[in-house]
Design a protein that fits this description.
binds S-adenosylmethionine; single chain; globular; Rossmann fold
């Protein structure tokens, strides 16, 4: 028998990530009065993106596909220094007051581009972004188009990330675009730009 390390100091019970987040003090806006409210249950991809932002020291990013702004608000909430371009064409939707409210509360940290992803990319210079998070149309063609549209906007040491790697179209587009990539437990995919093929 080997002599084991003592583990008496380990807190019991060990805190879950959600409990740890609840203990944090958020320096940004309080999103609980927004509709839908921020929830700890739907925070997974925001955690993953935030982890990589901190690990790689990234602060200027773009989220492609915003919907209700849940991930956008979580990202601002978790990363006091982050600045985000929020891109969504909201096709067929007239009332965008919900997203205007999110932008207003973000206090200048978010710039909204109400455009199709492949058009919005032309508004930014090359190498401007630290990261991009692609979460719009998850078909093979659209994901490939988004990776190609946004790859030059991210600087050489930045990250290209996205969601729904469990969907076959996304997996094919990501697999064809990068020599390697990381996968998180909630199907977020993460790739340094230098892994582009
Ligand atoms: C899965 S939702 C985004 C969810 C959001 N990222 C989150 O985590 O809270 C997809 C969004 O992408 C937008 N979208 C789809 N195709 C798009 C395109 N070509 N350009 C811009 N936005 C698009 C849709 O309007 C929709 O709001």
């Amino acid at each position: 028998m080997i002599e084991l390390f003592e583990n008496n100091d380990r807190p019991n019970p060990i805190k879950t990530p959600h409990e740890i987040v609840k203990d944090l003090e958020y320096p940004c806006f309080d999103g609980t009065d927004l509709n839908p409210p921020l929830t700890y249950e739907n925070i997974h991809k925001s955690f993953v993106i935030s982890y990589f932002c901190r690990r790689f020291d990234l602060s200027i990013g773009a989220e492609i596909g915003i919907d209700q702004g849940l991930n956008l608000r979580h990202l601002i909430w978790l990363n006091p220094d982050i600045k985000l371009y929020a891109i969504d064409n909201y096709e067929g939707m007239n009332d965008l007051s919900f997203i205007e409210e999110v932008i207003e509360k973000a206090n200048g940290k978010v710039k909204f581009l109400h455009k199709k992803s492949t058009e919005a990319c032309h508004d930014l210079p090359d190498n401007h972004l630290d990261f991009v998070f692609i979460d719009a149309n998850h078909s093979y063609e659209a994901t490939l188009e988004d990776i190609q549209a946004w790859r030059n906007k991210v600087h050489v040491n930045g990250l290209i990330m996205g969601h729904e790697l469990n969907l076959s179209g996304v997996a094919r587009a990501v697999g064809e675009s990068f020599s390697q990539f990381w996968i998180s437990y909630d199907n977020t995919w993460i790739a340094p730009k230098c892994w582009l093929i």
